[in-house]
Amino acid sequence: MRTPPAVSLPPATGGWREGQPVGRRRWVTLERPLSLEAGGVLPGVRIAYETWGKLAPDGGNAVLVLHALTGDSHVAGPAEPGHPTPGWWDALIGPGRPVDTERWYVVAPNVLGGCQGSTGPASPRPDGRPWGPSFPYLTQRDQVAAEAALADALGVARWAAVIGGSMGGMRALEWAVGRPERTGSLLVLACPAAASAEQIAWGSVQIAAIRGDPGWQDGHYHDAPPGGGPHRGLGTARRIAHVTYRSEPELATRFARRPQRGEDPWRGGRYAVESYLDHHAAKLARRFDAGSYVVLTEAMNGHDIGRGRGGAAPALRRITMPTLVAGVASDRLYPPSQQDELAAAIPGADRPRVIDSPYGHDGFLIETEQVGSLVRELLAGA
């Protein structure tokens, strides 16, 4: 068995913290405490965001882009101080790209509860201590309420388009159902009307992996030294999630049963697919916060567009603006049948679109040419 190279210990939290480079982030602080759907309020809310392009004098060219679970506001641009990874949809946003920033004003917030500048478990409470386990339960409606306050602060009365995939798609649906007068058109990728039992199960085992890590310390880990946080539990959660994000045929083609180069699985080594999962686990521990992972996964488990609205069908009938709904053909986490149901129930949608990809759920991030075509189609009518 080959001895892996020595690496530095991961920080207690991989989330952005005060004093680190800000990169392209800007912030809006809500003037009043945010009332929460589950009860209570969240004071001192700050939303980090990035923008591209210029807002038109009439405010009519604004496009809202909403990220998935471990995404952030850095949709476009290189990795740089303050942004540990390149833009996650870099090929889609910029001059001459599907969201042409010579025409459109693009806004991408870091979700409330996240860890890349917006208020979340790693953020300071009013007393200066990290929120940690006292951070409240959030829903997508709370997150959209915070994003609406951001829109107000930016002078955007109505988005020309709201675009989101996976967890971002859940929030995009909430914008269209809860604030149709502020949503000019809609693109929803790889998400359901409500989380299913299986999807809740996958999320729950990831949460259990994090909370079962001794480094979790009941959520009081943010001041721990490097290596003292719940990075092992977070890594396990990432491994579980990543299997659901990709497809079995892709994994079979890429890895089959091959051992990792230089290692013997019969003598303590790893298979190549294990090394692949280890790599993604280690990367996430250095750029994400375990508490945010729990809070956001709980919000995804609670996703139900029909809650308090008479069910999904009546809720989705509110979406009369031009809408595109697309799924990934090989997605086993949020299968295309769920997008078929959305498209059938939304008056503003036509046929469901299919992103042809071997990459599973992650296809909505990887297949930028196909997604770009959908974006261009949507914006042509906006």
How would you describe this structure in keywords?
alpha/beta, 382 residues, 8-stranded mixed sheet, two-stranded antiparallel sheet, single chain
Compose a concise summary of this entry.
The chain is of the alpha/beta class. It contains eleven helices and ten strands.
Structural commentary:
The protein is an alpha/beta fold. Helices cover 32% and strands 11% of the residues. It has 11 helices and 10 strands. The strands form 2 sheets. The chain has an 8-stranded mixed β-sheet, sandwiched between helices. A two-stranded antiparallel sheet has the order 2-3. The longest helix has 15 residues. The model has no long low-confidence stretch (mean pLDDT 96).
The largest pleated sheet is described as: 8 strands, mixed
Determine the mean pLDDT: 96
Q: State the end-to-end distance.
A: 58 Å
Strand order of the largest sheet: 1-4-6-5-7-8-9-10
Rg over CA atoms, rounded to whole Å, is 20 Å
Reading the helices and strands in chain order gives EEEEEEHEHEHHHHHHEHEHH
Strand content: 5-15%
Structural class: alpha/beta
Q: Looking at the structure, what is the overall shape?
A: globular
In total, the number of strands is 10
| Structure annotation, total helices | 11
- Share of helical residues: 25-40%
Instruction: List unreliable stretches of 5+ residues.
Output: none
